[in-house]
Amino acid sequence: MRGYKIFSGSANEEFAKKISKYLSLPLSNAGVKRFSDGEISIQIDESVRGKDVFIIQSTCAPTNDNLMELLIMTDALRRSSASSITAIIPYFGYARQDRKASPRVPITAKLVANLIESAGVDRVATIDLHAGQIQGFFDIPVDNLYGSIIFNEYIKNKNYKNPIIASPDIGGIARARSVAKALGLDIVIVDKRREKANESEVMNVIGDVKDKEVILVDDIIDTAGTIVKAAEVFKSKGAKSVIACCTHPVLSGVAYERIAKEALDELVVTDTIPLKQQMDKIQVLSVAPIFGEVIRRVYHNESVNSLFV
């Protein structure tokens, strides 16, 4: 067979090392440098001619730098005669700009998809895209995995007495319903109205949470405003405890200060984005083995369907 190699950008090197360990395959060597004016330079330090290559790079903050790293590394590998290039993008930045929410604004997620394809990527694998329709922005295969696989197992092992799944807003109902169905639990919904970007207001709870262990499910936790306000409302309605399971810990601005408040008992996230700081209240689950298995199956031309269950 042709053989394959895995490369890592600088966004989340620990995550790449976990994938490397899962596959028992060392990370290949590439030098990432920055010039004094901020330009990025990448040197592929070994032959990739005829190889299937996988680049591991979340496009998290600094979003633009990490995106450019991905594009430049892809170009370098393509010009080095790699047989195929798969971009493993655990966190897909700009996914929240997936439509025209007001006049005269771009659809940046589509632009990013165009850039990734133009650079020479043949396939993309990610997890819990903020908007699933982003897969349709690409003309190449896109595997959008589900974080619920790992969260469901975590919730089962906690042995809650009276749990209920919650969606922090109307837009997250499908995600919460999927988890609730898998676990055989009921669902409640928060009626939320957002006044400004990065600001949210929790209005009301649709459903009964009295004396229940509420499990909030969402794809992204950014400033933590939505999650913490939802937790406060649930507690005011008599919830016994509130935990949140969020795939991507963006955690910008005052997020850590908000999480420290008493309303939220626990935050469970994955390692798609490295945490800026550690907190006892934050538990991190690794999805690296899932992506490692994706790489193995893609290389061997095996189906990845079972990884979506």
UniProtKB/TrEMBL annotation:
PROSITE patterns found in the cross-reference section: PRPP_SYNTHASE
Cofactor detail note: Binds 2 Mg(2+) ions per subunit.
Keyword Nucleotide-binding on entry: yes
Required cofactor names: Mg(2+)
Subunit relationships: Homohexamer.
InterPro entries named among the record's database cross-references: PRib_PP_synth_CS, Pribosyltran_N, PRTase-like, PRTase_dom, Rib-P_diPkinase, Rib-P_diPkinase_bac
Binding positions for Mg(2+) per the UniProt entry: 130, 169
Residue sites binding D-ribose 5-phosphate per the record: 194, 218, 222-226
Catalytic activity: D-ribose 5-phosphate + ATP = 5-phospho-alpha-D-ribose 1-diphosphate + AMP + H(+)
Keyword field: ATP-binding, Cytoplasm, Kinase, Magnesium, Metal-binding, Nucleotide biosynthesis, Nucleotide-binding, Transferase
GO MF: ATP binding; kinase activity; magnesium ion binding; ribose phosphate diphosphokinase activity
Family of this protein: Belongs to the ribose-phosphate pyrophosphokinase family. Class I subfamily.
NCBIfam families from the UniProt entry: PRK01259.1, ribP_PPkin
Cell compartments where the protein resides: Cytoplasm
Name of the protein described by the UniProt record: Ribose-phosphate pyrophosphokinase
Main localization (coarse): cytoplasm
Pathway: Metabolic intermediate biosynthesis; 5-phospho-alpha-D-ribose 1-diphosphate biosynthesis; 5-phospho-alpha-D-ribose 1-diphosphate from D-ribose 5-phosphate (route I): step 1/1
Gene3D superfamilies xref list: 3.40.50.2020
Active site positions, chain numbering: 192
Keyword Transferase assigned: yes
